Amino acid sequence: MDKLVIEGGVPLNGPIRVSGSKNAALPILLACILPEGPVSLTNVPRLRDIHTTLKLLGILGCETSFDGNNVTSIVKDIKIEAPYELVKTMRASVLCLGPLLALKGEAKVALPGGCAIGARPVDLHLTAFEQMGATFDLNSGYIHGRCDQLKGAHIHFDFPTVGGTQNVLMAATIADGDSIIENAAREPEVVDLANFLIACGAKISGHGTSIIKVEGVSSLKGCDYKIMPDRIEAGTYMVAAAMTDGELLIEDCPFKELDAVVYKMRKMGVWMQEEEGGVRVRRDGDMVGIDITTQPYPGFPTDMQAQLMTMMCLSNGAGTIQEKIFENRFMHVQELVRLGADIKLKGRTAMVRGVEKFTGAPVMASDLRASASLVVAGLAASGRTEVQRIYHLDRGYENLEAKLCGVGARVWREKE
């Protein structure tokens, strides 16, 4: 098992490129079950979850290759079972449920368990598919769904679930009849999936709004498609620039998709400017504490909560962070306290009082975004920080230490 060692206190300066979005690539890869003919994807990040998804596609009957940041996939002989051995390591695996039901009329997918940041039940997915004509049994930890043929339906989600919206969207593309998805998730990654499906011949409108309309077609065809850049990776680099008092040019930055993050960071005292080649970011004087509430897109993203909390720890004054998406997403708090942070928790609210500095110490990552927050904290800390359990980090950040070293950071990987 690896750990990341950081000698902090060095301002980061120079250009740093954002990789393709993991959260966009995973559902698009699973949507490759649907088209007849080859699919070619570019800007795919080389991450553990991507390799896991490609293994799952192989089990489900797709022939894939992964060269550089390019993936090709073609359907050979579709199978209907997603085994627990893969689903337990990556919750996004449940997104094969919709495509398999639509294509084969049957799917057997291992029931995902919980994770460190809280439970993410799939009941909203199943209720939607029942409205489309599927029936489900739960046997030996597997969801077993069947239908004669999925029918178009009017789906209303009680909560704008990203995974539920993506699962139903994929299934609806080749369902019999038209579908309407109300209270749909509006995240850019949902839009990217819709744009991929449209490139394959799907008839979709309203993606990016709370009402998505899908006209079912008989089949989809293969296509060439480029995965969008990762907005959370870009946001993490914005925080790193400000916290180390450096200046980064973030290349291939999805600036528009980061509106809520940009708004809050500017209020905290960060200067940002779009220019040819990317977005330039630096601190604009002293940083100040603010109040943040995580919400579904276009609100402030829960995936940037830990990074902004880390930034608030070294800001003047105090601020609060309310976590409204996941019930257990403050596991990084005690690790930040080990570095010198002043944070008090009450339920789903964190009160953060700014301190003068972080001092390096051994810390342990509990999930992907907590890992990122601890790395950023280590970059700003005086002395040596060791971030343990960075296998979490490898799930969502491609070549992170190499990219950070390229802009002046002193960071390397060691065996624990």
TrEMBL record:
Principal localisation: cytoplasm
Gene Ontology BP terms: cell division; cell wall organization; peptidoglycan biosynthetic process; regulation of cell shape; UDP-N-acetylgalactosamine biosynthetic process
Protein's UniProt keywords contain Heme: no
Localization terms from the record: Cytoplasm
E.C. designation(s): 2.5.1.7
Gene Ontology CC: cytoplasm
Modified residues (2-(S-cysteinyl)pyruvic acid O-phosphothioketal): 115
UniProt entry tagged with the keyword Transferase: yes
GO molecular function terms listed in the Swiss-Prot or TrEMBL record: UDP-N-acetylglucosamine 1-carboxyvinyltransferase activity
Active site residues according to the UniProt entry: 115
Pathway(s) the chain acts in: Cell wall biogenesis; peptidoglycan biosynthesis
Pfam families recorded: EPSP_synthase
Enzyme class: transferase
Keywords recorded for this protein, A-Z: Cell cycle, Cell division, Cell shape, Cell wall biogenesis/degradation, Cytoplasm, Peptidoglycan synthesis, Pyruvate, Transferase
Segments forming domain Enolpyruvate transferase: 7-404
Entries under SUPFAM superfamilies matching the protein: EPT/RTPC-like (SSF55205)
Family annotation (HAMAP family): MurA
Function, in words: Cell wall formation. Adds enolpyruvyl to UDP-N-acetylglucosamine.
Family: Belongs to the EPSP synthase family. MurA subfamily.
Protein name, per record: UDP-N-acetylglucosamine 1-carboxyvinyltransferase
